[in-house]
Specification:
The chain has 368 residues and is of the alpha+beta class. It has two domains: 272 residues, CorA soluble domain-like (Beta Polymerase, domain 2), CATH 3.30.460; 63 residues, Up-down Bundle (Methane Monooxygenase Hydroxylase, Chain G, domain 1), CATH 1.20.58. 55% of the residues lie in helices and 14% in strands. It is built from ten helices and seven strands. The chain has a seven-stranded mixed sheet, with helices on both faces. A hairpin with a 2-residue loop joins strand 1 and strand 2. The N and C termini lie far apart (106 Å). It comes from Mycolicibacterium arenosum. It is a multi-pass membrane protein. Mediates influx of magnesium ions.
């Protein structure tokens, strides 16, 4: 048996277990200010001067409310990460499920209620300028805007490079009467801005569809069905953004009377009408493009039939000299007119005559 005398005590002890390392212990969190587009406090319809953090803004609102002055805070975020969004959620008491949706995006338009907070998801669409559909790779791009609305706060989270709310905020800053209606008036202004953009984009897409329709039904032009498929794919993307919002806006106009004032609900019904109009346009475009696909397939089939008739006509014409040349190309001694002086020109004359008759016949039948 081996002896362990003379060995150092540290060699006799079992190896120590590695300490668990927190993956977030050494990570650097980006402050909320990096994702914050704007943060403002509104009191009695007027934006208060000064710059605020999200925590300081809410504290200012509470101070004003204690003096009997109505106030709320509107904070705008652009693509926050989990840490930034959680920091805002801790201050405003946002539900964790809605916070997760706001961070990861890719949500369908919807409306959810968490206690006294409404969570509205809007899909934004933007028209990508292009010279023609044939040269375009993308016609419509989409983004998202999430809106958290509470008794004294509005938190907007935007995803995508378009759909900025600077114009909406500027309009609200210059409309004290609208701002005085409270946080839900901000929700209406954002929804109205997004839905109005739907109508603008549908007008531009309609021009592309009209151009494609002219191309399909033009007898002298060739139609590439892939371009129609591109338009149809973009229209389907628009439909996914516009159509589901109708149900959410209907709920805003009829439910949640304990949260939303009667005046704001009237405004939301107007937004619902515009969204319904946009949804009907998109559905109509989808039907038109489906018809264009069928028309384009029929046009391609007719073109193929025409090409096949031309090929068949030329093959029939070429078959006559081929047959005669094949017959007289056989090496037999006893063949008619083989040793006649007029045999060769006679065969050429027969070939030319028959080919001319066939050509005139095919031309008369519009095969050539």
């Amino acid at each position: 048996m081996p002896s362990f005398r003379g060995l150092q005590p540290s060699l006799l002890r079992p190896p120590a277990k590695p300490r668990s390392v927190d993956p977030d212990a050494h990570s650097i969190h980006v402050p909320v200010a990096r994702a914050m587009v704007d943060c403002a406090v509104y009191s009695e319809g007027v934006r208060l001067p000064g710059k605020y953090t999200h925590g300081a803004a809410l504290e200012k609102v509470h101070q004003l409310e204690q003096t009997g002055v109505p106030a709320y805070v509107w904070i705008g975020l652009h693509e926050p990460d989990e840490h930034q969004m959680q920091a805002v959620a801790d201050v405003f008491g946002l539900h964790e499920l809605a916070v997760e949706d706001a961070v990861h995006a890719h949500q369908r338009p919807k409306l959810e209620r968490y206690d006294d907070t409404l969570f509205l998801v809007l899909k934004t669409i933007n028209y990508v300028e292009h010279e023609s559909v044939a040269m375009a790779r993308e016609i419509v791009e989409t983004g998202e805007i999430m809106i958290f609305v509470g008794r004294d706060f509005v938190v907007t989270v935007r995803h995508g490079d378009h759909g900025g709310l600077a114009k909406v905020r500027k309009h609200m800053d210059t409309s004290p009467a609208t701002c005085s209606l409270g946080p839900y008036a901000v929700m209406h202004a954002i929804a109205d801005h997004v839905v109005d953009s739907y109508l603008d984009v549908t007008d531009l897409v309609e021009n592309d569809i009209d151009s494609m329709e002219e191309n399909v039904f033009s007898p002298t032009s060739t139609t590439d069905i892939e371009h129609i498929y591109l338009l149809k794919r973009e229209v389907v993307e628009m439909r996914r953004a516009v159509a589901p919002l109708t149900f959410a806006l209907q709920r805003i106009g009829t439910d949640h009377n304990d949260l939303i004032s009667k005046e704001v609900r009237r405004y939301m019904r107007d937004v619902l009408d515009h969204n319904t109009q946009a949804s009907e346009r998109v559905a109509g475009y989808d039907e038109v493009l489906s018809s264009l696909v069928q028309a384009a397939v029929g046009k391609v089939s007719m073109q193929q039939n025409t090409d096949m008739r031309k090929i068949s006509a030329w093959v029939a014409i070429a078959a006559v000299p081929t047959a005669l040349a094949g017959i007289y190309g056989m090496n037999f001694d006893h063949m008619p007119e083989l040793h006649q002086v007029w045999g060769y020109p006679a065969v050429l004359l027969i070939m030319a005559t028959v080919c001319t008759v066939l050509y005139m016949t095919f031309r008369r039948n519009h095969w050539l």
